[in-house]
Amino acid sequence: MDSSAASRARPASRSGLARTPTAATLGEIRFDEVEVDDCFSGPNGDVRGTTIGPRWPELQVAGAVYLEQRFCERLPPAIRPALPPKFMGGRGYEYTTVLYWPDSDDPRAGKRYAGHHAEILDERASLARVAVFPPGASDRANVEPRTMWIDLSSPEHTDAGPHSLTEIGPGGRKSGALYLISTGLPSMAMHQRKRSQ
Hints:
The chain has about 200 residues and is of the alpha+beta class.
């Protein structure tokens, strides 16, 4: 295919803040062109991810931008953001998400997981009672973590599987990163229904 045909096949006007996983899922960009994460609801319903840009037309001039890891690594060191962000608390992984690309046999495909700091309080096989700290607050005194039972081996709860970013687990570390399920990408079937309405 020549370059003029390729540019007609998808919009060339996608700016950096519009280069999201949802745009890739909808075929507006390729997955290797993703530069920022979407805005999404966190595990407790809080707004997470990128909160400025084309999806926020009500003049949001301050907010968060979640950069895609490879995009961030290509930035010059002088402008590459630190994790945790400067003047913020917690651990670096509390400011990250992991999204597994769709269209694979991986049970995590199309799912997003948010990083938290957690401590295992009790365990029964793959089930664990964990204390999950609010994002960015795990190093603060007097912060009350939320306690819950989760199945650390289930992709319906955590990013359990090959190359998991979760560090804690039965028989292993008792304190560290825990990536909890947050949201998923829109399915193409849902997108097709919206277009036909």
